[in-house]
## 1
Amino acid sequence: MGATRNPAKPAYYVTENLVKLGFTGKIYPINPNASEILGLKCYPSLKDVSDEVDLVISLVPASAILKVVEECSEKGVKGIVVIAGGFSEGGKVGRELEKKISEILRKTGMRLLGPNTLSPINPTNKLIVSFRGVKELKKGSLAFCFQSGMYEPKLGWIFDGIHLGVSKIIDVGNKPDINEVDVLEYLGKDDETNVIALHIENIKGNSKRFVELLKETTRKKPVIVIKGGRTNMGAKASLTHTGSLSEGNYTIFKAVLKQTGAIHAQTLEEFFDFAKIFEFLKPPKGNRIGIITLSGGEGVIAVDCCEENGFKLAEIKSETIEQLRKVYPPWNIPSNPFDMGPCIEFHGNAKVCKVVLGSISKDENVDCMAIQLPAFIPPPELEEVVKSFLKLKELDKPVVVWRATMGKQEDRIVEELERNYIPVYPSVERAIKALGKLYEYKVFLEKLKEKT
Amino acid sequence: MGATRNPAKPAYYVTENLVKLGFTGKIYPINPNASEILGLKCYPSLKDVSDEVDLVISLVPASAILKVVEECSEKGVKGIVVIAGGFSEGGKVGRELEKKISEILRKTGMRLLGPNTLSPINPTNKLIVSFRGVKELKKGSLAFCFQSGMYEPKLGWIFDGIHLGVSKIIDVGNKPDINEVDVLEYLGKDDETNVIALHIENIKGNSKRFVELLKETTRKKPVIVIKGGRTNMGAKASLTHTGSLSEGNYTIFKAVLKQTGAIHAQTLEEFFDFAKIFEFLKPPKGNRIGIITLSGGEGVIAVDCCEENGFKLAEIKSETIEQLRKVYPPWNIPSNPFDMGPCIEFHGNAKVCKVVLGSISKDENVDCMAIQLPAFIPPPELEEVVKSFLKLKELDKPVVVWRATMGKQEDRIVEELERNYIPVYPSVERAIKALGKLYEYKVFLEKLKEKT
């Protein structure tokens, strides 16, 4: 409702995305001043639609919402998405409005997402609510839940930049009805979702129930959580944007989170870093890691990160060391962390990657690997280098990669590796930290098993 | 020495860079098997050069180095750069070799950088040692010192990607002679250097002297320090790559660092993030910050970061609030953190940026600002938006910016802002943390003044 034909308005893209991306259901644009929108017949009002309507996406401003909700209730609609802001986050009038809406919902059993939301997104049926023209919805098994439209400018980056496939994206907004408890319960049961990434500022539903749910869910699938409003100042700011006070002590929150087995992201970068690794990889069998770098300096930092994230340096077998000698300069004894730098200088990228990646990955003492991307690869060697990386997917050992140059050639390699579910991170610290979370989750699951 | 005409060898680029980038001194390539390299007359040996020689860059392998050092000593050369590896990091033979070299140096007073170095770089006289063809050396006031060639693949990114201008880059390598103490002393006195960024694994010189020097230097210019080998495992790894054991307890190291007033980077990303902000901006007068975002959710996280990094939310004056009302929707009361999202929906990017950035930056209660870049700006509005950001440079208040979309349009804006010394970070957390270090350094300097 409130569909528009004017491409200068953000609301236009809500209809356009549904049409262009091929929403699998039927679309009934409602606008009393238009007869047709994007080739779809337009209806003057909801009651003029003779078919049953499952979901209404409302684009009308807050002042007109009560009428929309009433019409939906009369029509027997099951769910409403309210995009408009200006409710409880705007002050008293808005809070009253939310209360009135909640009363209607309670009476009818209708469910409402928002207000103040820019979602949901579901690549399976191509249901999408967005103010930008979205090109592609890559389907995956990762579900996001936000308490803000903050993910929205990052949508292109999520799909095309960090190559995430998504099962659902939900922004609960002011959440007078559907809140994080409902979403977590839904996603926990959703067969299309294997990983859940949750941004929360506060628990509006039953917080005891939320913690129980979190405990239940983490046994089945990893849940990554980031909290906005972790400081006093932040909690106050939270009140003004979704009308909910982000209460409680962050120290307690962190402790509770740990108990539930949820994975705690401290920054937005960690949030997406961790989401990617759980979407891309299965946990390693153990914590014996093989490190491959381009320089001794990054090797040392990599090893620091290993110790800080629960890894042991794998003790490489003598057979493997023998193989590595083929590409190592004579003065250099191959040892973990492995510095490919001098090897490449003498034998080139293609041969060194084949020998080093190949032999270390096959070593029985290696459970997982962290590898720095080779830099400035001569174009004739490029394909062979990428092949050596892709070959790692044949083994049942998780591999994380980090970037060396940040250059354009590297962008293309990253693209190819990530399309093949080898996660690439901008830095050694982020790569190994993400891998650490994967291992941490495996240990958590094992401890659970021991208990039962 | 060891110059080559073969572009397939990394060594080729050492000569090519000097020629192409226009090294201001004279170059004498030495190679007994060539008469000319890149248009320069080639000499069979060092003694065939009749002019005085200040610096020798040695490209010969470890096994031939002793002869090079002896020849340099006979010729009266002042300094030698030894690129080759295979010295103390390779074992006993290499350690012996380093000792013999050190004896010659002690007798002659010659100085040696390396072995196992890929440096120095000096944009002033275009002196550069690198294995890649480097396009441009942007001159700035930031000096880097590494204990590894790890920065080398990132060279293009440093200059073109994060737009840093550099005064010197030095990789001390195995440092039997020139070490971090010498470098810090030199950079502390260097008029071209205003900011020092130091990667160290261990102190090979006099560590008491190093701490004293650090204390002296931080009074004059900020020193950013990252430590490799902060864990036991990492310290051991350090031994195998530059032949130096990274000793000592990291907790003690951190405490000592704090006492000296040095700025501690915990990750490589922080190292470059902090280097950039000190190179680009002067510290704020106070800690009252104005936050501008595209969504309430990022606003809350921004505020959390402010509290965690020593900032107070600026209390915006009522005159400023009045001006903001022009672009705010009626239900939304402008308050810090400011959410531009709904404003842009109604008034467009150009107008909103002009009003919001313009009025908040001029508010007397605002000492500094953190701003999220607008997203998906319609091309006709682009120039005006960038203008509003660049206008902020007219005021004496530091501004940090963080990205919203990670898209290509944004890349171009980032480029323009950073060329004008407005630092742009990939995330809100990194932007505000970097700004926090700038403020922390100002507080440190003020406390020093109080004491004296």
## 2
Amino acid sequence: MLEAKIPRATSEKKASKRKSQKFSSADALLNAVSELFIERRSLNISLSDIAQKSRLNSALIKYYFGNKDGLLLALIERDASQSLVALNALLEMDSPADRKMRIHIAGIINSYHRTPYLNRLLHYLIGNGETAASKKIANFFVKPVVEAQRAILTQGEHEGVFRQVDAEMFYFSMVGACDHLFFATHSLQPLFGELQVTEDLRRRYTSHVTDIYMTALAKPRNESAS
Amino acid sequence: MLEAKIPRATSEKKASKRKSQKFSSADALLNAVSELFIERRSLNISLSDIAQKSRLNSALIKYYFGNKDGLLLALIERDASQSLVALNALLEMDSPADRKMRIHIAGIINSYHRTPYLNRLLHYLIGNGETAASKKIANFFVKPVVEAQRAILTQGEHEGVFRQVDAEMFYFSMVGACDHLFFATHSLQPLFGELQVTEDLRRRYTSHVTDIYMTALAKPRNESAS
């Protein structure tokens, strides 16, 4: 047994130190990747770029994350979990469903705007056809969002302000609608002369997507009285 | 697509023969890639896979398309141009705007469904950060679609059936909405137990996206009479 070889008295302290070192090095690697993505506006970074930025040996990537894709998956997990915390707080709010839905739509667009690489990274990891990565993304990111939206839609139906829509299809169309401006950056230059989504474009897009979905969800006035 | 450099001194007959050979070999390469993408449900194909499938030397890829990305860009151009022909025919139709918009939405979803690799390929080429490829995609694909949608939206406003919406933002949100089910295939399995978009899911999604956008576009009844 491996355990028997380590004296108990010292192992706890050592394990604790090792654990905190692990987390700080792993975090340093994640921060380095995040900063490089934002600086370069590209996913084209090498292991040695990450090593240089984090001042850590690139062998640590293999140690903590298995490979570069494992590191990227961990970065998505970290960034997406911030959005999920906000989403859970939204669900707990004592507010009418239409207000929650407006906040949710703006929240999705803001998180794509705040973390401009998130979307490309998600697309890159999925595009790679890595089944394990795809399943992980579905479980930690997609399912909670689908459930949260279903809860808001149901609340809105009970309050008599939303008509019934297909909640699962709603997830795909609404997230796709929020996502596309930030993904299709190739279209920004010819259409708006901008190379990235400016603050003004973000506001204009939020206003448009909110308008489309809130109008589409609203129960017609003559029906809401019934 | 890269034009092959043909010496000026060649006779017209020779040039014509070479031109038709060029087109048939180039087409054979494009067909091979398209078939491989559909067979394998993946973008992971090598130059030697393409050579084997097309029974042509892989050096011809470099000759006709510069490199593999050039070949992929030409494939997108070919497949997207079929959709653009259909879109132009739609614009010429003597039909009310709401009917045109319904056909347009179903058409976008159908083209993603018919050519399942189109979307991943577009995402792959854009994700590569190839500025030349991104610009080409914007010019041959995005601009014509934006203009077509603007024409249908304007027609609908004149006919008194559509309210005014932000036509440029509409392009991004609507195409994003149509696109996401086919891109986010990682979410299909956990949500529906399906590994790809079935005929039934396609119909359900078309019905949902059409419902959302047609409801959102409709001029409220009390206003349409004014």
